[in-house]
Amino acid sequence: MFKTEISPETLTILTTYQCTAACKDCCFECTPQVSVKLTEEQIKDAILQAKLNFPLLKQVVFSGGECFMLKDTLFRSIALATSLGLVTRCVTNAYWAKNRSRANEIVRELSNSGLTEVNISTGLDHQRWVSLNTVVNALEVLVSHSISTLITIESDTETSTCLSDLTQNQRVQTIRKEHSEKFTLQVNAWMPFHKDSVTRQVIDIKEIEGGCDQLFNNCVITANGEIAACCGLTLEHIDEIKVGKINNLSDFIINQEDDFLKLWIYTDGPIGIIKTLMGFDYFKEHNVHHQCQACVMLHKDEAIKKQLSSTWKEHLIPTIQKFNLKKNGISVKKMEYV
């Protein structure tokens, strides 16, 4: 009935699900004991395939798990992407900066490989494994080598003070003053994965409504060698997010170009779809903290699936129209809650 024009700008490689940390609410359940990882040949082949198949490709993101556990494989993979004219980013918990001398060696390798940016994840769960001091060590060394650094910190609980500890740290304040062009800080919602997880913050669901810009724009390779439609926190919990195998990246396009639900998620987002199908009151029965949680509901909740199956054709034409508007940079006004 339709075909979506797809050409992602980002290739995200979840290089491994092994990690030096074992955060309780880790979306991929990463621990030091997990051994799942891609080979260097798989990583390099994925980069070359992406460059060949995706004409709008701009950047490669190396994540995990903890991508720095790949050591020289990581540096060589970054260098390959750089040689192809691509922007590169690493996502890490910064465990490698506990020793300043070793951190300098690693960052020199990153610089020589042409790395563009590092994104450091920290906060209450992460700091049980990697101290704030280690994170600040990494930040100092990275900016001293002119590598742009983003620190993403989990939202705090009612009693934790990770954000204020970071912002009030004297070394961090000095960096913000002297290297403001190289350092960015952002706070992310922390999504619980267990019933006994401590609530971090109550989010007005209207604030996380909206289309998912990850879809169609970010081709993700998982540590299991699968192609995923997004790098959402719940991608390993939704079978429909898997769209192919690493040996054929063109499946990212072929297996999504006529997928209406993904088209609808891209334009309206999972919260908007559930609201349309079930009414806003449906959310009163569920504690939703994150857009990715709503995406799991959309794919797993039997009542939602039944309603979707019986009414999706009614929403096809309006969704295609909204998709075309969004692709052309035209804002689609959100529907008001009633």
UniProtKB/TrEMBL annotation:
It comes from the Bacteria. Keywords: Iron, Iron-sulfur, Metal-binding, S-adenosyl-L-methionine. The keyword Iron-sulfur applies. The keyword NAD does not apply. Its cofactor is [4Fe-4S] cluster. GO terms for molecular function: catalytic activity; iron-sulfur cluster binding; metal ion binding. InterPro entries: Aldolase_TIM (IPR013785), Radical_SAM_PqqE_MftC-like (IPR050377), rSAM (IPR007197), rSAM_sf (IPR058240). This is Radical SAM protein. It comes from Vibrio ouci. The lineage of its organism: Bacteria, Pseudomonadati, Pseudomonadota, Gammaproteobacteria, Vibrionales.
